[in-house]
Amino acid sequence: MKAGLLHIALASLICLSGQTAAAQDTFQNASQPTEAAAQKTAGLEDDAKRADNVAHNVVVLRALDKITARITEIELPVGDEARFGTLALKALYCRTRQPIEPPETFAYLEIEDLKRNEDRERVFEGWMVASSPALNPLEHSVYDVWVINCKTVEPSEDAPKP
């Protein structure tokens, strides 16, 4: 009986050592990519960079006037300024994740409160996240503003071409 167990143990060791050598060959081949594999990887990285760099040129915001309970949806082109009550809203960047990732929208906003003598007081500057508006909110006694979405608007056919 002991001899039978010894043979089984010895056979197992021989099989494992053969698999280990094969696994080492596979690992060495995988760690040294061929030129074709390197070109394919570089192509995928280029595609990912292009997909991430899709320009979203309009930020969709929702604004609430707490006194009148008026809710307004604002489509703000990136780089432009819009007014809501006494607020001047300016979007500098907007990004929506790709469909293969969990959905999320990020926007970088500058919000200023306009005073009677045309002075401006910066009340918010930073990133707003659509799924978590309380994460980095505008703290204002009269207004709330939060990000809804980003979108790309194609220029109309009537628009002058550069």
Structure, explained:
- The protein is of the alpha+beta class and 162 residues long.
- It has 2 domains: 51 residues; 94 residues, no CATH class.
- Helices cover 30% and strands 36% of the residues.
- The strands form 2 sheets. Strands 3-4-5-6 form a 4-stranded antiparallel sheet, with no helix packed on it.
- Pfam families: DUF2155 (PF09923).
- It comes from Kordiimonas lacus.
- Keywords: Signal.
- This is DUF2155 domain-containing protein.
N-to-C CA distance: 90 Å
What would the average pLDDT be, to the nearest integer?
73
Low-confidence stretches: 9-55
Q: Work out the helix count.
A: 2
Strand arrangement across the biggest beta sheet:
3-4-5-6
Short description:
Residues 1-22 form the signal peptide. This protein has helices spanning 2-31, 35-52; strands spanning 58-65, 70-77, 81-84, 87-96, 105-114, 120-129, 143-151.
Question: What's the structural blueprint in terms of helices and strands?
Answer:
Blueprint lengths: L1 H30 L3 H18 L5 E8 L4 E8 L3 E4 L2 E10 L8 E10 L5 E10 L13 E9 L11
Antiparallel strand pairs: 1-2, 1-7, 3-4, 4-5, 5-6
Features of this protein?
162 residues, alpha+beta, 2 domains, 4-stranded antiparallel beta sheet, 2 helices, 30% helix, globular
